[in-house]
Amino acid sequence: MFYAYDDLRWTSSQLGLVMSTYGAAFTAGEFALGRLSDRLGRKPVLVVGLALFSAQFAGLVLFRDPAWIVLSFLLAGLGNALYDPALSALILDMTPPEHTAGMMGLKGMAGSLGNLLGPALVVLFTPRVGPRIIFLGAAGLVYLLTLLSGLFLRAPERVEIPREVSDTAAVR
Hints:
The protein has helices at about 1-5, 10-35, 35-40, 40-55, 55-60, 65-95, 100-130, 130-150, 165-170. By secondary structure, the protein is mainly alpha-helical. The longest helix has 30 residues, at about 100-130.
């Protein structure tokens, strides 16, 4: 927030536009793209989603014009909308049924921990290195995660549910 106001000289309306663009893209993206990993596979959707998610950090490093940063946050919101459902589905694919609630709880806890530690680390390191270095580091970490996911992630074999079983479950 201080980077936007102090360094970029944005108004509160410009900051609000950028932040709401991310949320709107994420919401619309989950609605429109949430089942894409069912059709294309978990791994490719997860990797593309992570790559797009990094656009917000890259945009804050590369651009000063609000329009370009809005575009980067739009891409990041769509990326989050791609990888989040794919990650949840991958976790459910790999987890025995008796442990699904616990694993989804751990996924939520990891996300909350990131939401807690991310800003805390920004407060700790920004006075020493500046916000653009923080954004560059965040982009680098997401790019590294994208690369590692692309190289090493092995999705479990897909289990096909017989049509009559899935039809019966839909009736219940």
